């Protein structure tokens, strides 16, 4: 993928579908459009999955919480999409065992019955039956769970993935299908046809790298910007009422010794009604998440002290080794775009998606979650094609294998996220053996991955590489800061940048990464 060529071609054609937003939703919409044969362009103001879509709990799941809330239709849809994702991207999505620890006599039968219903709703796409565990069996699966008062547990299965790697895979899939993805292309306005209340016929945008202003025409524009949804809607109608409420979710990352073994912990009901997870991921443990209403939105949200305290307190409650702030390898925050009353408790607002068409033809898709990104894309393009008068074509993405597809991978291996691309990364290492060197002893990443991400995955900054092409920022923020100079040198070679660029990138990255470190 050549970004310069993509930018040059953006203004040369009238696109069938122009998607604004390069997170899970926008990428799902763009892949859907391109797979139906529509000429498709996607613009992202920063890097792909820079916001919410790289900051999830790393789960592809039906949503036990939604079942508790009685939202059976959302659970059914999510379980169906979970099954499809495991089939279409087995190099990125795999099943994981979750154990619900039981401390009160009523919890076993209560959660056991609920999870049997969860199994039944999954149908033939289920990942395995849930079952009750004795105290000894529960400790075998999660040996560091608090044993005092433990009666047993319930085990069930859900999906796990690497969120930003799935996003990059969708970028590659879009390009494979003939679509054009461009990062660092910020939409600044909407273009209209002449006359009162003219229909939207494209966008104005700025290439953030060159400063070049772009005018891009399209038969339909899709607003898929997550928590920034209302900003784009007000480009269409300055008086548009807010439809999105932002809720912040925070996670802390701990060393694997806090939760050894192959199973995750799920606490379905904390003291304030939240669901809490402790999930093994890339050799670490991710503990989350919080659910805190926030008044504003940002590309780089920061965890609040009370959110960190909540997670540490509950980790201490359920783990035998009590983590303290100095044990936290990284802390990250993400914003959920929820559609509903901003005065409502965000835990109670539906995670289902909402599709809206304005009088001028702007198509807006928001809400939802990573698990249902494909279904959101399919619903959106069916509507967008009607708005634009495009030829009606059926969705094919239920059976669309994503870029790099292979079922011959071990999800424990760090290279598995590349799928078949790993063969080409190994070829880079054979041609330049120094690229096989690890970037840091605390993490598995190699120099070849930096070259690959810059050359073929449109990484443009050190942050793009260390946060989203590799997951170093989330897995060990301090180690990632130590890796930054080597990464900058490798990227500078690929991008034709000088020493000043390297130094500026390292400084900017280290300033950002300090926000992921406690103390």
Apparent shape: globular
CATH topology of the largest domain: D-Amino Acid Oxidase, Chain A, domain 2
Structurally, the number of domains stands at 3
Largest beta-sheet details: 10 strands, mixed
- DSSP summary: helix tally: 16
Give start-end ranges of low-pLDDT stretches: 342-350
Distance between the termini: 40 Å
What's the CATH class of the largest domain, please? Answer: Alpha Beta
How large is the share of residues in beta strands? 15-25%
CATH architect. name of the largest domain: 2-Layer Sandwich
- Average pLDDT works out at 93
Structural class: alpha+beta
Over the alpha carbons, how many angstroms does the gyration radius reach? 23 Å
Let me know the CATH homologous superfamily of the largest domain: D-Amino Acid Oxidase, subunit A, domain 2
- So what's the oligomer here? single chain
Helix content: 25-40%
């Amino acid at each position: 993928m050549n970004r310069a060529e993509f930018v040059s071609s953006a203004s040369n054609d009238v696109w069938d579908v122009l998607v604004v937003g390069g997170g899970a939703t926008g990428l799902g919409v763009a892949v859907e459009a391109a797979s139906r044969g529509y000429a498709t362009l996607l613009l992202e103001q920063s890097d792909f999955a820079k916001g919410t879509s790289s900051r999830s709990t790393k789960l592809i799941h039906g949503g036990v919480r939604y079942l508790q809330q009685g939202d059976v239709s959302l659970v059914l849809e999510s379980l169906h999409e979970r099954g499809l994702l495991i089939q279409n991207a087995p190099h990125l999505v795999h099943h994981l065992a979750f154990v619900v620890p039981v401390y009160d006599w009523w919890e076993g039968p209560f959660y056991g019955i609920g999870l049997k219903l969860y199994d039944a709703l999954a149908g033939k796409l289920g990942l395995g039956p849930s079952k009750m565990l004795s105290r000894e069996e529960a400790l075998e699966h999660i040996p560091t769970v608090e044993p005092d008062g433990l009666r047993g547990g319930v085990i069930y299965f859900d999906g796990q993935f690497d969120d930003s790697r799935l996003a990059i895979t969708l970028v590659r899939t879009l390009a494979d299908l003939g679509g054009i993805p461009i990062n660092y292309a910020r939409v600044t306005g909407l273009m209209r046809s002449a006359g009162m209340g003219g229909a939207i016929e494209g966008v104005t945008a700025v290439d953030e790298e060159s400063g070049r202003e772009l005018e891009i025409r399209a038969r339909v524009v899709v607003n898929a910007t997550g928590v920034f949804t209302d900003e784009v809607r007000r480009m269409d109608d300055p008086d548009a009422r807010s439809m999105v409420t932002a809720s912040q979710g925070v996670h802390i990352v701990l060393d694997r010794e806090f939760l050894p073994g192959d199973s995750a912990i799920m606490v379905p009901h904390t003291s304030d009604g939240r669901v809490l997870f402790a999930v093994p991921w890339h050799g670490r443990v991710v503990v989350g998440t919080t659910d805190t209403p926030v008044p504003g939105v940002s590309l780089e949200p920061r965890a609040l002290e009370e959110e960190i305290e909540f997670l540490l307190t509950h980790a201490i409650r359920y783990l035998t080794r009590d983590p303290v702030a100095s044990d936290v390898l990284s802390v990250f925050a993400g914003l959920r775009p929820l559609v509903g009353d901003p005065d409502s408790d965000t835990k109670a607002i539906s995670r289902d998606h909402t599709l809206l068409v304005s009088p001028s033809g702007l198509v807006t898709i928001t809400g939802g979650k990573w698990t249902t990104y494909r279904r959101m894309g399919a619903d959106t393009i069916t509507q967008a094609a009607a708005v634009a008068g495009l030829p009606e074509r059926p969705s094919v993405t239920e059976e669309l294998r994503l870029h790099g597809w292979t079922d011959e991978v071990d999800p424990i291996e760090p290279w598995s996220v590349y799928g078949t691309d790993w063969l080409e990364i190994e070829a880079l290492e054979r041609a330049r053996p120094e690229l096989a060197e690890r970037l840091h002893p605390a993490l598995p990443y190699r120099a070849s991955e930096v070259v690959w991400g810059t050359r073929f995955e449109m990484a443009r900054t050190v942050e793009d590489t260390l946060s989203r092409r590799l997951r170093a920022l989330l897995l060990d923020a301090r180690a990632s800061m130590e890796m930054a100079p080597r990464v900058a040198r490798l990227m500078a070679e690929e991008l034709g940048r000088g020493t000043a660029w390297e130094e500026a990138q390292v400084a900017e990255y280290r300033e950002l990464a300090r926000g992921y470190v406690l103390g």
